[in-house]
UniProtKB/TrEMBL annotation:
Annotated keywords: ATP-binding, Cell membrane, Cytoplasm, Immunity, Innate immunity, Leucine-rich repeat, Lipoprotein, Membrane, Nucleotide-binding, Palmitate, Repeat, Ubl conjugation
CDD domains in alphabetical order: CARD_NOD2_2_CARD15 (cd08788)
Main location: membrane
Organism of origin: Monodelphis domestica (Gray short-tailed opossum)
Pfam families: CARD, LRR_6, NACHT, NLRC4_HD2, WHD_NOD2
Protein name as annotated: Nucleotide binding oligomerization domain containing 2
GO BP annotation list: innate immune response; regulation of apoptotic process
The keyword Chaperone is assigned to this record: no
Membrane topology: Lipid-anchor
Gene name as annotated: NOD2
Length: 984
């Protein structure tokens, strides 16, 4: 009985041990249980159904064993331990009995040992059994199906022997005695060890440098890698709204249980926008493994990029993928591959840049054979689905748009890359500049320029700033507002490095004009690449687009990391965003781009009906041929999100700021003005169309709009143009009362764009930005539009006291500002005091939500004090803020004086019975409070009795919420009868 209880208490841990390790581990537990006769044959079959999630089978096994009683439970513990290798000893095999029925029993009794003994010999045994007529060819083929590992084949062979009544069991036992003992666990230790060493050396060399750093900078990844914030994406379908958001984890934790949403899946998905650091994070993971610093549970790590997979135009098998595309084993290929298949849990496969894969994820074709070739995309999809190399861990990186729900089904955990923290930005700059003086000045410069600071959260922008530090320190950063400003800066930087003598600093044509032919050639290649989903270019393609050595020497095209370093290795743009930037240049200044293309960039962008693979069966090896690939067709075929990045740059290049630069670069016939007016028209129309698509408001309610990613992109493009007049025109006539931009990846840069455009709204708006990553810097960027905000929702946005300081000054001074929702951020007593100070001069705020912060007693005191004679606040939420007696006392005093507050929410704090007496004193003198929420505190019957006193004389209070406190069911019944306003 004791064991059964203990067993039940250990259940979740046992499920973990059985389900989270390999299938091999689970099956060897079953072997022991069968051999000790804990499981009947029928039990065994019910827990070894192929295709069922391991966790389901594990739970079923625990149920079966528990029902059998204490001794079986004890044996299960022993089996788990044995299978996990705690008890490595295998019993020696002796002579067997000569009788067939006893032989069947012997096979079962010694199953674990026999499986270990024969797993490396199954093929030869099968041939022998076939030859002797014990098994048919059909039976042999069923046993040797390629989806099974060697041990599984061994088990299937034993299962067949059990049911065949033809002497096979006896024959098998005799044969087994003569078999040589195979070394366990490695079939060929030396070959595997050598392969691991070679793989580590290869991966280490590949991961040493980043492509954005050329040799001259002499910066190894080891020296510059800066921690990127990794946030766990919740399973929104299960998501409890009150769950505290922004759970983060460290790189070292990405394979553990934290944040796991599907125990049966093997893929960790890393999601982030372009430039958020996905490839670099993966590279760091490879480096840490290859240099023996972390992730040593894996014996083999195979890095791939989707660019590389895309370039494979011939069918490949898993074996050729691993060996030919990644690292070739110098000896024992078959043994090494067998080992990989038999120990999938020791293998990690990484796939970078799923968004760049031109094939969309599908479950249409199933492929289970690791040795049979299939298309690269089919191979990838089946690896992700677990049809191939089940239990191998996989890491997949992607921009968000490429992840579809059918792929999410196979995701073990999903992590978003949030970029650098504020401290991270500083650390990054210091790592880059060994000269402390330079680093100090650069850090100060970034901090002092709010728009720049906002951009630097995105690693690729931090890289640009760091790379162009000389220019910035010399000329200041005041001109850096938009993304286009950043990319122009880096363009000028590269040009000046390539030919320092003929380039002077400045935005004048002298900077770019001499290099215009190069820029246009790169631009044409870039656009062609986007239109054919090609991100790596062969020497032949470069020749075909006229890109010569001099163009290459500028440094924007670098040897592709997805291919082995050879002289003929294809090249790629330093970063996808740079490819889009050059494409934008071409769209603006290319001789064959007429203004009609603009519409395609900004709105009429439709994918062609034919799927790309058919149109471009060998895209990577084709050459750009502008006659056939008109600009329009390329734009239509390009990935929407790349077109959007290009559009943002195009708008930026057409800003007033850069007008002189582009006009001086153009040829005589380039219709720049026409293009500019088209962009303006498309943006204004696009935004209006978006607003018009919102259903009409229900009479009596405000018109509400939920923004889609397209809306954020249009806003960003408007911001890049920096045209106040256009922004005004685009939104001034729009009627919307509530603008919801939740879960839209809004960071500081997007906040700046939103403020730039929305400040022109004629009607006050409620701006809902919950569940984004606005942060303190983003709050600052929002300030310009606060004058049109009636309400601001910033729940779950990583805002700290610093952000509150920035907000309060401005928001609480606006006459029409009524609602501020700051739930689930990092606001402490310091922020609460700042808010309190702001409230003293404010007479408009009606709703203040601080749920899920940590203002504590001190913060509650400050706020309470400020509300003594506040006349507009009706609703205050301090739910879950660590408030105890001291805070409650202050709030009670506030209730004595305050005449406007109608609802006070104090759930999930530390309130006790004594605090109820304090509140009663306040409530006795109060005549405005209608709802008091006290659920989930530490109140007992005694506290409620005190509250009842005041209810007798107070008719204003409509309800007091008390659920989740300490009452017996009888007390609840009794108290509810005493006053129906008490809600339990
Ligand atoms: P993504 O793959 O998300 O597009 P990358 O990993 O290519 O982004 O990052 C772009 C550039 O930003 C890198 O080349 C590197 O210069 C810089 N970078 C990104 N992440 C980091 C990091 N964690 N530490 C240092 N630099 C980084």
């Amino acid at each position: 009985m004791y064991t059964q209880e203990f067993f039940q208490a250990q259940r979740s841990q046992l499920v973990g041990r059985l389900a989270l390790r390999s299938l091999e581990n689970f099956e060897s537990v079953l072997d022991y249980l069968l051999s000790w006769e804990v499981l009947t044959w029928e039990d065994y079959e019910s827990v070894s159904l192929p295709g069922q999630p391991l966790s389901t089978l594990a739970r079923r096994l625990l149920d079966i064993v528990w029902n059998k009683g204490g001794q079986s439970c004890e044996l299960l513990f022993a089996a788990v331990q044995k299978a996990e290798g705690a008890d490595e000893q295998t019993e020696p095999l002796r002579k067997w009995s000569q009788n067939e029925s006893c032989s069947v029993q012997d096979l079962q009794k010694h199953r674990p040992t026999i499986v270990r003994k024969i797993y490396g010999h199954v093929e030869s045994i099968l041939n022998l059994l076939l030859e002797r007529g014990f098994l048919t060819k059909y039976e042999c083929d069923e046993i040797r199906l390629p989806i099974f590992t060697s041990s599984q084949r061994a088990r299937r062979l034993l299962d067949f022997a059990k049911v065949k009544d033809n002497g096979v069991a006896q024959f098998l036992l005799q044969h087994i005695l003569q078999l040589p003992v195979l070394p366990v666990p490695l079939p060929d230790v030396t070959a595997c060890k050598k392969y691991t060493a070679k793989l580590k050396a290869t991966v280490s060399a590949q991961s040493r440098f980043l492509s954005t750093y050329d040799g001259t900078e002499n910066l190894c990844l080891e020296n510059i890698y800066t921690e990127n914030i990794l946030e766990i994406r919740k399973n929104l379908s299960l998501g409890v709204p009150s769950q505290k958001g922004h759970d983060t984890l460290e790189l070292a934790e990405i394979f553990n249980h934290k944040g796991c949403i599907n125990e049966d899946a093997d893929t960790v998905l890393l999601v982030g926008e372009a430039g958020s650091g996905k490839s670099t994070l993966l590279q760091q993971l490879h480096r840490l493994w290859a240099t023996g610093q972390q992730f040593q549970d894996f014996l083999f790590v195979f890095p791939f990029s989707c660019r590389q997979l895309q370039s494979m135009d011939k069918p490949v098998s898993v074996q050729s993928l691993l060996f030919e595309q990644c690292c070739w084993p110098n000896e024992g290929q078959q043994e090494v591959f067998r080992y990989l298949l038999d120990h999938p849990d020791r293998v990690l496969l990484t796939f970078d840049g799923f968004d760049e894969f031109k094939f969309r994820f599908t479950e249409r074709e199933t492929h289970c054979s690791p040795t049979d070739p299939t298309s690269a995309q089919n191979l990838l999809f089946n690896l992700l689905r677990g049809n191939l190399m089940k239990n191998t861990k996989k890491v997949l990186t992607s921009r968000p748009h490429a992840i579809c729900p059918s792929l999410r089904k196979y995701v073990r955990k999903e992590l978003s890359l949030m970029g650098f923290s504020q401290d991270g930005i500083e650390l990054f700059m210091r790592k880059h500049h060994s000269d402390a003086g330079v680093a100090d000045r650069l850090v100060q410069l970034v901090k002092a320029t709010s728009a720049l600071h906002g951009l630097c959260h995105v690693p690729v922008f931090s890289w640009i700033v760091s790379r162009c530090h000389k220019e910035l320190l010399l000329h200041g950063s005041g001109f850096l507002k938009t993304t286009t400003d950043m990319y122009l800066l880096v363009l000028r930087h590269f040009i000046s490095h390539a030919s320092p003598e003929d380039v002077a600093w400045g935005l004048g044509a002298s900077t770019l004009r001499p290099r215009l032919p190069t820029i246009l050639r790169l631009g044409r290649l870039a656009l062609w690449g986007l239109g054919t989903c090609s991100y790596v270019f062969s020497a032949e393609q470069l020749r075909a687009s006229g890109v010569d050595e001099e163009d290459l020497s500028l440094g924007f095209l670098v040897p592709s990391k997805s291919f082995p370093p050879e002289s003929s290795a294809p090249v790629e743009f330093l970063h996808i965003t740079l490819q889009c930037f050059f494409a934008a240049f071409y769209l603006l200044l290319g001789a064959d781009v007429n203004p009609s293309a603009i519409r395609c960039v900004f709105g009429g962008h439709k994918k062609p009906h034919q799927p790309l693979p058919r149109l471009f069966p060998m895209a990577c090896f084709q050459s750009p041929e502008p006659e056939e690939e008109s600009v329009l067709t390329l734009l239509q075929r390009a990935e929407t999100h790349n077109v959007r990045i290009t559009a943002v740059f195009l708008a930026g290049l057409l800003s007033q700021e850069h007008w002189r630069l582009v006009t001086e670069c153009r040829g005589t016939s380039t219709p720049l003005l026409q293009k500019k007016s088209r962009v303006r028209r498309c943006l204004a129309r696009g935004l209006r169309r978006h607003f018009r698509s919102i259903p009409r408001a229900v009479p009596g309610e405000v018109k509400s709009m939920h923004a889609m990613p397209e809306f954020v992109w249009l806003i960003r493009s408007l911001y890049e143009m920096q045209d106040e007049h256009l922004a005004r025109k685009a939104v001034s006539k729009l009627e919307v009362g509530h603008l919801k931009v939740t879960y839209c990846n809004i960071g500081p840069a997007e906040c700046a764009a939103l403020a730039f455009v929305l400040k022109n709204l004629q009607q006050p708006v409620a701006l809902q930005l919950d569940y984004n990553s606005v942060g303190d810097i983003g709050v600052e960027q929002l300030l310009p539009c606060l004058s049109v905000c009636r309400a601001l929702y910033l729940r779950d946005n990583n805002i700290s006291d610093q952000g509150i300081c920035r907000l309060v000054d401005q928001a609480l001074q606006c006459d029409q500002f009524q609602k501020l929702a700051l739930g689930n951020n990092h606001i402490t007593a310091v922020g609460a005091k700042v808010l309190a100070e702001g409230l003293k001069d404010n007479d408009s705020l009606q709703f203040l939500g601080l749920w899920g912060n940590t203002v504590g007693d001190e913060g509650a005191q400050a706020l309470a004090c400020a509300l003594h004679d506040h006349h507009s606040l009706k609703w205050l939420s301090l739910v879950g803020n660590n408030i105890g007696s001291v805070g409650t006392q202050a709030l009670a005093l506030m209730l004595e004086k305050n005449v406007s507050l109608e609802e006070l929410c104090l759930e999930e704090n530390h309130l006790q019975d004594e605090d109820m007496c304090t509140l009663v004193d306040g409530l006795k003198k109060n005549s405005s409070l209608e709802v008091l929420k006290l659920s989930n505190n530490r109140i007992t019957h005694r506290g409620v009795s005190a509250l009842l006193q005041v209810l007798e004389s107070n008719a204003t209070i409509r309800s007091i919420w008390l659920r989740g406190n300490t009452f017996t069911p009888e007390e609840i019944e009794q108290l509810s009868l005493m006053d129906s306003r008490l809600l339990f």
